[in-house]
Amino acid sequence: MAALRELLLTAERTPQPLDDAILSFARSLLLYPPATNTSPPIPLSQDDASSLSHQFLAIHPQGELFLRVWPENHGAGSRYEKRDSFAIFLHVVTHLLQVQQQLDAAQAEAFALRVVREKMVQLEKLLSWSDKPWIEFRVLELMTAVTKVSTVTAREFVRVFNFQCPAFVKLATRRWKKSEEDGHDKTIEKHAPVQLRAVYVNLVLALTACPDKSVHRFAMKEGGVTASLFKSVDDDSIEMLTTLFTRLGKTVLHNDDVERKSKLVVYNGTCVHQVLALLHMEGDASVRDTALGVLNALFFEDSALYVVPQKQALRLFLSKTSAQSDEEAITSRVYAVSDSDACRDNWW
């Protein structure tokens, strides 16, 4: 309760920076580790954190306080002296929105709509801060939470957000970041990097799976965000690949409610070429197994998306979607697959 009181009081003291109050509140919600310079540290339980969220939402059911003190500037003399506080702020807002969604769906929808209508310009600006990946991560995380509140909020997000802004377009080509290794001992793995690729995929999958038909059509359109997911799969971890192909398979490929022409837009030439590249990745065999499963569903199963002769399926497809030089390079690698009598049951 002390952290909530401090936040409420500091918010009213207009010139006073909010960095410490926001961080203290986030720690009390167990979103961040407790401070190490307090002696002794105050132990907090999950029940305490849950109670604190409920207390705040009882006072500001639509997150009014955070909408009022939303960070726009930083530096000496502003309410936020550190840019890193922006990431903490967004993390808290996302958490409170998700809690409110469980407590009161109507208030959560109003909360999310205010974020979309009043703060989207600021969120787009924060996406351009590429030197602060945690801020980008928290922006995308909040956007994903907003789209999941209801079909109304998802539709409003699609209407308001500028999907063509350079910062968002660039996200489609962001790659999975490998964990850094210690320079002296390659077996020691450092802290995992911020995975912008993962949170971007989650946002796009949320839009693709939205029950609202207009949102679903927007995501699935030619050159849309769903098709963009395959641009960087060759660097994805096995966990990311499994998530991506499983959820897209359920939402798109194996979904009888999705028209075939829409499926073809998503599972296009870029997709097939990227999946083929996964067959030749070294290391985890499960990556190749995942790729084979997708290719089977596209070309060789009874309900295959591409209806062409089995023995020539990949070669015919590639000849229509590739330049001659690309086709020769790729078909030379999959010749044994596409011309084998056993291609349906035993790829290799």
TrEMBL record:
It comes from the Eukaryota. Residues 85-297 form the URB1 N-terminal domain. InterPro entries: URB1, URB1_N. GO terms for biological process: maturation of 5.8S rRNA from tricistronic rRNA transcript (SSU-rRNA, 5.8S rRNA, LSU-rRNA); maturation of LSU-rRNA from tricistronic rRNA transcript (SSU-rRNA, 5.8S rRNA, LSU-rRNA). GO terms for cellular component: nucleolus. It holds the Pfam family Npa1. Signal peptide: none annotated. PANTHER family: NUCLEOLAR PRE-RIBOSOMAL-ASSOCIATED PROTEIN 1, NUCLEOLAR PRERIBOSOMAL-ASSOCIATED PROTEIN 1. This is URB1 N-terminal domain-containing protein. It comes from Hyaloperonospora arabidopsidis (strain Emoy2) (Downy mildew agent).
